Amino acid sequence: MSTDPPVDPPATSTRGATEAGGRRRDLPAALLIGVLTLLLGFAFTVQVRNSDDDQVLAGAREEDLVRIVDEVSSRGVRLRQQIADQRSALRQLTSSDSESASALEEARTRSASLAVLNGTAPARGPGLRLTIRDPGDELRVTDLLDVVQELRGAGAETMQFDGVRVGLSTAVTGAPGALMIDGRPITAPYEVLVLGSPQDMETALNIPGGVVQAVGGRGGSVEVVQQPELVVDALRPLPDAQYAAPDTDD
Amino acid sequence: MIPILGLVAGVLLGLLLDPTVPLWLQPYLPIAVVAALDAVFGGFRARLDGIFDAKVFVISFVSNVVVAALIVFLGDQLGVGAQLSTAVVVVLGIRIFGNAAAIRRHVFRA
């Protein structure tokens, strides 16, 4: 529009004669022109603004719309497929997560109870304190084994024999008066700490022909004291399995 | 001067109000705008030629817009709206180019 002024003079000079009289008559026309151009500017701006945003779709033709709908729906199908995939992956992950968490928890408890059974961890609980006296050095290997077996049969969960933890492979060896448990010499009086039901175990020890009588028959004596709280803290070294390996595919 | 003022005022109004185009008008508005642009260019050219007539301008403006919209409307009814609106835009574009060329000859004498 900056070019307007230089071209104006020749135009008005040719028009001057005809328009001098028509100026007043042209007032409504000029008004009309103003309104029309205003409308044009308005419509132009609105259209430019309008085609900027997504509402262009509303003015689109049928065949364009069909194509667009086609694209959008196939895209929707793909996205829905992706959502389903992600959902199932998420489900798998969460379930395996909780599964592994509970499996880990179970493994922990199992390992703890196995450690108590194996004698690799200290244990505490109710049980019996036995004091086996053997003044004549008459007790033999089988007598001590009987004590252990009787206690186990009565539900003893773990025990220590004169400071030696009794486990799966515990052996009682030696001669009367020089007995050994797992190769470690023990001396009378033998002190046995055993965890389990105190009543059951005491009853089992005292049955006729049982351990107490057998020891008494050899000149010894067994003193049984029930303890509501005992600590078995002697530990056994965990032997490394040399031949047997855990079978994992179960 | 009045057309320029009108255009500027219209653009400002459009920017300020920022209305949404009603659905039924959306296919016709761009065509109407192009047709009106054609009329404005024609008017400008006529003014430079010294043969500008307000009545002619108003009538050509209105009829341009109406005819263009009508053609597109007809095309939509016949199922060839897309093609016809393309045709209208092409024809109006050619006319705008012609008018612009005439204006250019006046302004630059080339």
UniProtKB/TrEMBL annotation, chain B:
<feature type="transmembrane region" description="Helical">
    <location>
        <begin position="80"/>
        <end position="103"/>
    </location>
</feature>
<dbReference type="GO" id="GO:0005886">
    <property type="term" value="C:plasma membrane"/>
</dbReference>
<keyword id="KW-0812">Transmembrane</keyword>
<comment type="similarity">
    <text>Belongs to the sbp family.</text>
</comment>
<protein>
    <submittedName>
        <fullName>Small basic protein</fullName>
    </submittedName>
</protein>
<feature type="transmembrane region" description="Helical">
    <location>
        <begin position="27"/>
        <end position="44"/>
    </location>
</feature>
<dbReference type="Pfam" id="PF06947">
    <property type="entry name" value="DUF1290"/>
</dbReference>
<keyword id="KW-1003">Cell membrane</keyword>
<keyword id="KW-0472">Membrane</keyword>
<dbReference type="InterPro" id="IPR009709">
    <property type="entry name" value="DUF1290"/>
</dbReference>
<keyword id="KW-1133">Transmembrane helix</keyword>
<feature type="transmembrane region" description="Helical">
    <location>
        <begin position="56"/>
        <end position="74"/>
    </location>
</feature>
